[in-house]
Write a structure and sequence with these properties.
Number of strands: 18
Shape: flat
Radius of gyration: 28 Å
Structural class: alpha+beta
Number of helices: 7
Distance between the termini: 90 Å
Length: 382
């Protein structure tokens, strides 16, 4: 009998930090090959020898939510001190495994070396004092085979997509990526004034002209309502199809864990492009206002409601900064990029695709022929 294999150290022990490059990699302790987070195992895994390493979360770690105004004041203070954002610049990193040069563009913080596939993470962005620190992450759960199958099913069901588009393996890029999000908690009190409309019926006319009409009696109303909103997610990255990404919801933000870089190893990751104040004002606030309007209308009651004036005070407005996982397919077709997204937790697919003019024209011609045949048969039967 052979000697038992020692239990591998946990994932955090495998991290190697390159101080000069301000990066982090995860070499396998058994063979030296790069490790990557395997969503089907929820561990760091070596594709070369099969060794895996558990990711151990700190039992004392807690996800902290931040007051939005306080955070924005702090960011404004950093800008006043000249601490510029470093997320939007091109940065060249030397791979410590093979010596190849890897370019980090824009808000990219984790990628693979294009020469040896070693996963590389930038610490200079995530640890920078002028940037918001990550609070949490929802670890990727959909492995590549399942994501690939979901994409295949989605594309094959698009009958009017060009045949060339279905050759996405050669035309496009398919990769896993962690996108930056803010999740907002809102406590809001709103005073309002408006009108309540109650329908009633009256009988009008006489004789043969007598009939019933529905009318509405309006009366002024006013009141105060409270709304409590938890875990409202909004993307903090640009360059994505926002409407399609929104359709990937709901996200189980409540299941997020304190940010641990091992969950990102071997996958692309982006830091935020927009600050939490901007995202709240332009993306989250309209959704909050819509919910408040619904609460006001329910409070008014009746058959119809009119809101003439409202004033909202935020008793609490907090957020956390977290990463959410997706699989992203980008296909460049006739000079235009088309994006298809797979929810990295549920496997749901949302996206856009081109339309084949040839297939649409053929379908129209076939429909016209069918209609002509049916008309001919109908005329013959007469």
């Amino acid at each position: 009998m052979g000697r038992p294999q020692p239990t591998p150290a946990n994932a955090a022990d495998r991290a190697q930090r390159q101080v000069t490059e301000q990066t982090r990699t995860y070499p396998c302790g058994n063979c030296g090959a790069p490790l990557a987070y395997a969503p089907d195992q929820q561990r760091l895994a070596c594709a070369s020898c099969g060794t895996t390493y558990p990711i151990e979360l700190d039992p004392n770690a807690r996800i902290v939510k931040h007051d939005l105004q306080t955070a924005m004041n702090q960011l404004a203070g950093n800008r006043a001190l000249g601490l510029a954002s470093i997320g939007g610049n091109e940065h060249v990193v030397t791979c410590q495994a093979c010596g190849g040069k890897t370019i980090f563009n824009g808000s990219l913080t984790a990628t693979r070396c294009p020469y040896c596939a070693t996963p590389i993470q930038r610490d200079d962005i995530q640890d920078a004092p002028e940037r918001l620190a990550l609070d949490a992450v929802l670890p990727l759960q959909v492995a590549q085979p399942q994501a690939q199958a979901a994409i295949e099913k989605w594309i094959n069901s698009r009958w009017f997509a060009p045949s060339e588009f279905k050759k996405y393996r050669t035309l496009g890029s398919f990769t896993s990526v962690y996108m930056s999000y803010y999740s907002y908690d809102v406590e809001a009190t709103t005073g309002y004034s408006g009108q309540r409309g109650d329908d009633y019926t009256v009988v009008v006319g006489s004789g043969d002209d007598q009939h019933t009409e529905t009318r509405t009696a309006w009366r002024p109303v006013s009141g105060r309502v409270h709304d409590s909103i938890r875990d409202l997610p909004e993307m903090a990255n640009t360059g994505m199809d926002d409407d399609r990404v929104r359709e990937l919801e709901p996200w189980p933000v409540q299941a997020a864990v304190p940010y641990t870089p091992e969950f990102v190893a071997g996958h692309l990751s982006r830091t935020y492009d927009r600050d939490p104040g901007d995202v709240f004002d332009k993306n989250a606030r309209p959704r909050v206002d819509s919910q408040i309007d619904g609460t006001i209308r329910r409070d008014i009651g009746g058959d119809h409601q009119q809101i003439h004036h409202k004033q909202t005070v935020f008793d609490q407005l907090a957020f956390m900064y977290l990463l959410l996982p997706m699989w992203l397919l980008t296909v460049n077709f006739e000079g235009r990029p088309f994006q298809v997204f797979v929810n990295g937790l549920t496997g749901e697919v949302q996206g856009d695709r081109p339309w084949s003019k040839v297939k649409i024209a053929a379908a129209v011609v076939a429909a016209l022929i069918l209609i002509g045949v049916l008309v001919f048969l109908f005329m013959r039967m007469r």
